Amino acid sequence: MASPGSPASSASSGSSRSFNPNRPITLEDLVHHFVASKRSLNTQTILWRANELVNTARELLEENAVLAAKNSSIRSIVDEQVDALEAVRRGIDVVEAEVQAEFKQILHDLDTSFSGLRSTLAVLRDTPIESVLRPPGTAQKHLFDFIDNATVSSLEDSLRACIDRYNDSRSNLSDSNDSFDTSLDNLHSSLENVPNTPATSSNPSPIPSLYQELEGHAREAAQAFQSLVRHYDLCVTALRHTEGGSAAATQATGDAPGQSGDDFSAPPEPMTDEERQEMLTVLVKDAREVEDVVSEIRERGSEMTFLLNQIQNHVDHLRNEDSALSSIIKLLAHLAVQAKEHISTSRSFHGSWLEDTRPTLLTGIEEWENQREFYERFDLAYAELLVEIASRRRRHEKAKRKADEAQKELDRLHADDLRAREQFTLTQGDFLPLDIWPGLRDPPRKYEVRVIGVQREEQGVEGTDEEDIIAQSIPQLGRNVVERALTRVKRRM
C-alpha cells in the first residue's frame, strides 16, 4: 500500500467491485472502501496470535539453549563413562589373558615334570633286586618297593586341588565378565535408542534461525497491519470530507450512531480540493492492495504457526533426548556399582593366582624335579651298587690270592727257620749249656695270614671257615648283570 515499508503487490484480484480510475469517485465507492478496510482490521486477531507465537517461540528458544547445552554435556559425560567402563573391561581381559597364558605354560611345565617323574618311577618298577642280594626264601622285590609312594600321591592330590581352586576362581571371573558384557551390551543398546540431536558443530541448531524467521514474519505482519490501519484512517478522513459520508458509513456498517467506534464526530480539518483529490487517489490505489495485504498477514500467520511447530518439534526432540539421557545416567550409575564388583572379582582372581596357584604350582614343579632327581639317583646308586659289589668281589679275590701267596711264603720261611735251628742244635747243641740263652731251644715263631674284622653272622654258615663267610657276604653277580649296570652308570655320567 502507498506507505513506507508496506508490502508491494500486483493489482487486486479479490475485490468485489471494480473501479474505473478515469471516473470521479462516488460516496458509494468511499463507503465500499471504508467497509472493506474496516473488515481487514479483523486481521488484528492474527497479530494477537502472532504475539503469542513469538512469546512461546522465545521461551522455546531459551529452553532449546538450556537443553542443547545440557544434552551435549551429558553426552560428553556418557561418552567418557562408557570409555572408562570399556577400559575397565579391557583391563580385566588383559589380566585374565596374562594369567591364563602363564597358567598354561606352568601347567605344561608341571605336566612335563610329572611325566619325567612317572618315567623314573616306571624304571624303578621295572628294576628288580638281584636275587643274590636278597635273603634266601624272600619274595622278588623291585626298586619301587623301597620308596615312599605316599609322598608322590599326596603332592599330586595337593596340586590337583590347587588347579581345581584356580578353575573355580576363573569360573567366577568368567561369570562376572559375562554379566559385565551383558550390562555393557544393554548400555550400548540404550545409547542407540537415545534420539540423536540433529544439531552438531557442522549442523547447528535450527531453532535460532527459525525463531528469527518467525519473528520476521511477525514484524512484517505488524507492518502490514499498520498499513491497513493507515488505509482505514484514510477512508475515515475521506468520508468526513465528503458530504453525507459519516451517515452513509454508519448505515453501511449497521452500527448505531456513536457505537461504531469510528471517529466521525470530530469536525474535519480544512482541506483544499487538490489535497482531497490527492488523498482520494492514494485511497483508491491502496484499496486495490487491501485483499493482498490481508492475505499476506494470514499467510504470515500460517507460516508462523508452521515455524512454531518446527521449533516445538525440535524442542520436543531435545526433551525426549534429555529424558533418555537421564535414564542413561541412572543406568551408568548402576553399572558403575557393578563395575566395582567386577573389578573386585578380577582382583580376587589375580590375587589368588599370585598368592596361591602360581607359587603352589611352581613349588610342585620343584618338588617333582627334586623327587625325580632323587629317584634317578636312587636308580643310579643301585646300578653303582652292583658295580661296587662286582668290584669288591674282585678286590676280595685278589686279596685272597695275595693272602694265600703270603701264607705260603710264611710257611716256607717257618720251615726254613725250623730246619736251620734243628741243624744248629744238631751241630752245636752238645757244646752249649742250656742256660747260656733261655731261647736257645725255642721253636721258631709261626705267622698266619687270617681274616679279621668280621662282625655279622651269616645265616646257615655256622662252623664254616671265616674266609668262606667273607666270600659269601660278597655276592657273585653274573657278568651280564654287571655289564648292564656299567652301561646305566655310564649313560648317567
TrEMBL record:
- Select a single GO molecular function from the record's annotations and give it: protein kinase activator activity
Tagged with keyword Nucleus: no
The compartments listed are:
Cytoplasm; Preautophagosomal structure membrane
Q: Where is the composition biased (Low complexity)?
A: 1-16, 195-204
UniProt topology in membrane: Peripheral membrane protein
What Pfam families does the entry give? Answer: ATG17_like (PF04108)
What residue spans carry the region label Disordered?
1-20, 184-210, 246-274
Which keywords describe this protein according to UniProt? Autophagy, Coiled coil, Cytoplasm, Membrane
- Say which domain of life the source belongs to: Eukaryota
Q: Which GO terms describe its biological process?
A: autophagosome assembly; autophagy of mitochondrion; piecemeal microautophagy of the nucleus
Q: Which residues form the Autophagy protein ATG17-like domain?
A: 40-432
Query: Function of this protein?
Result: Autophagy-specific protein that functions in response to autophagy-inducing signals as a scaffold to recruit other ATG proteins to organize preautophagosomal structure (PAS) formation. Modulates the timing and magnitude of the autophagy response, such as the size of the sequestering vesicles. Plays particularly a role in pexophagy and nucleophagy.
The family classification in the record reads: Belongs to the ATG17 family.
What name is this protein filed under? Autophagy-related protein 17
Give the species this sequence originates from.
Answer: Lophiotrema nucula
